[in-house]
Amino acid sequence: MIVLGVESSCDETGLALYDTERGLLAHALHSQVAMHEAYGGVVPELASRDHVRRAIPLLEQILQQSKVPLSAIDAIGYTQGPGLAGALLVGAAIANSLGLALQKPVLGVHHLEGHLLSPLLSEKPPVFPFVALLVSGGHTQLMRVEGVGQYVLLGETLDDAAGEAFDKSAKLLGLGYPGGPAISRLAESGDPSVHLLPRPMLHSKNLDFSFSGLKTAVLTLVKKQDAHLSETDKAHIARAFVEAIVEVLTAKCLAALKQTGLKRLVIAGGVGANQQLRLALNIAAERKRFEVFYPELALCTDNGAMIAFAAALRLKNKLAMGSTDYSFNVKPRWPLDAIEITS
User: Fold this and answer.
1) pLDDT of 115-137, one tens digit each?
2) Which residues are 142's β-sheet partners?
3) In angstroms, rounded to a whole number, what is the distance separating the alpha carbons of residues 193 and 285?
4) C-alpha distance from residue 199 to each of 158, 177, 239, 249, 285 (Å)
5) For residue range 50-103, what is the model confidence (pLDDT) as tens digits?
6) What angle do CA 325, 22, 81 make, to 5 degrees?
7) Which of 15, 139, 240, 263 has its CA 20 to 30 A from that of 29?
8) Are 182 and 189 in contact, with CB atoms under 8 Å apart?
9) What is the mean pLDDT of the chain?
10) pLDDT-derived band of residue 169, with 50, 70 and 90 as boundaries?
11) Above 90 in pLDDT, residue 342?
12) Which residues of 125-157 are buried (b: 16+ CB within 10 A; e: fewer)?
């Protein structure tokens, strides 16, 4: 079964073809970072318009790469939510239009389920069950995963997600957009002993997170320096910020593994590409004797491959049939543990 995946939830347009027998056949991605950089963040209307421009050329690209004719596609999966409403509508319209033209079933996919399952596309995939940390620009959640479609929420952020804290703190330091990678690179030259930032909810007796206070602490440091904030000062603050957020994420992951009794941890989402977080988790895994799994770096950001793969797994496991009436809606807010077993 060959499944086409369409991702358009925010500022990346991604299309991919996944074959349940041969694996990932092709995927292509266009990032809108350069377009949004001038505004310091994603402009929803511009994002939606750019998805319209990019989707069909990317489809033609993956068909050419895979040498698969359009008629060979058996089903189409698209990101139904969560995400920006206008951006989601573009992907939904494209997927259902193709489905109607090809007379193939179309399936709405949860964006976070795509991230959650993306490490299964790696050369060394995890096996169920496992604990998953979903950590991205808009979400920070710990889940117990028993299988495809079997997710139990263990804890989540009460305010800003980790990725939001990265971006907002980077903006305070004048690093521009996107902030996450920039603040991580700057932190490498910082001294961790210069500043000590708070570790929000580090010692709470639950698995929830809170990162708005950490962002406020960065703001306080920046204001103290006033106009005298040098590049070295910025590096020290960046290092303190990264040290704090990585310590909290690592500690919560360890607590989740202890609570569940599981020995496998999966990291998914854009922040999963952060090298400081990966290093800390790898060290913890060696010390505590558990396994940790990551998506390939190219699949950490939003992409069509994870959507095609999630749709294929749901269809293969008969958790969804796909729609053939080609009407659609999108779900800008959609809790992962609220996914229905059938579509």
Assistant:
1) 999 999 998 999 999 999 999 87
2) 133, 155
3) 25
4) 14, 24, 14, 10, 21
5) 999 999 999 999 999 999 999 999 999 999 999 999 999 999 999 999 999 999
6) 40
7) 139
8) no
9) 94
10) very high
11) no
12) ebeebbbbbbbbbbbbbbbbbeebbebeebbbb
Amino acid present at 138: G
Instruction: Indicate whether this model's pTM tops 0.90.
Output: yes
Where does residue 273 fall: left (phi above 0), alpha (psi -120 to 50 degrees), or beta otherwise? alpha
The confidence score (pLDDT) of residue 340 equals: 65
Could you give the C-alpha distances from 326 to 84, 98, 317, in angstroms and in order? 21, 9, 22
Listed in order, strand segments (DSSP E) in the chain are 2-7, 12-19, 23-31, 75-81, 106-110, 130-135, 140-147, 150-156, 264-268, 291-293
Rounded distance, CA 264 to CA 269, Å?
17
**Alpha-carbon span 339 to 20, nearest angstrom:** 22
Q: Which residue from 50, 37, 57 is spatially nearest to 8, judged by alpha carbons? A: 50
d(C-alpha 49, C-alpha 52), whole Å: 5
